[in-house]
Amino acid sequence: MSQASPVPSSPAGAIPKAATPQAPGLVGVSWVKKLEPVLISLLAVLVAMLLFGGFLALDGLNPMAVYEEMFRGAFGTWFSFQNTLQRSAPLMLTALCTALPAQLGLVVIGGEGALVVGGVAAAVAGLAMHGSSSYLVLITMFLAGATAGGAWIGLVGALRAYRGVNETISSLLLAYIAIALMNHLVEGPLRDPLSLNKPATRHIGEANMLGPIPGLDVHWGLLYGVVACLLAYVLMKRTVFGFAAAMTGGNLRAALLSGLRVRRLLIFTCFLAGAAAGTAGMVEVAAVHGRANASLVAGYGYAGILVAFVARQNPLGVIPVALLVGGISASGGLLQRNFNLPDASVNVLQGILFMVILASETLYGRLDVWRFARRAAAAESVGSVA
What is the model's pTM? Predict the structure, then answer.
């Protein structure tokens, strides 16, 4: 008697899996497509540096010497590197305020407003909990800052979901409202009578301050930022929620037809984005200033927009880009002392970089190297089938 074959028989007309033609070139193209955002972003940074170098040359300065000094002021010494890390912490959090809604196709630029509102709420919570355990105070400040910032940007999502208001305009206008509200509270009901020249709230107390990470002269806000970016990546890239967000951002009509609750998804994502920026405000109060005042309006919210765009809205990419932008910001004082440049010169470089990044959007999928790789893969695939 003949033994039965251990290999199951295939249905008539079916092609065995092993016989399916593979196109090795397609693997290369997939890697090319993955590297495309990185290479174009690096190209944009290089072009921005060349343009900024042109302005420096017109001012009679040596661009290479300026860039060398910028590197030294950002990463050249242990002190400067720690300064860069400290400035990067709020940038990571405010960048998420733009990067998370972008997964749904939204352009939210109100991180500055959420940071300010979160900072004021955290200061009020810290003062209200005065006398309690320092851990309890910090937890309460975190919850207050995150909730206030989340509600602020959540309002942007609600306006878009229920009234069709453009989220870019509403988030920008709400940022100005947040700053005005902060000024009113700090100069009025919440003002410390002892703050004469610079109105501010009362100090939350040294015992309630967010101390440095052991072994570093950098506050714990850096860890907040890194952890937030990692959690955001897992949420958006490895969960059903993230898949629903990507589906909504890619094809809103398909998302609606599939039964997704788009309005709820939109509002909740905006809330999470605002909570990240609100946490940045809490960190600024609890780790840097110790109180809420005009120093909260330091431009971290607007710089976070640049970080998110350079990182292509990828939460993991936000971490290294925040280090780069934080380093540029940290080098401003050194440029002022050594080259007699205004401290705002680094803001000019950031502005040029932002414009170049926006212009580089037209390059995606259009460079000849990507076309050549796709054609080579297609030809190899046809050859293997033949």
Answer: 0.85
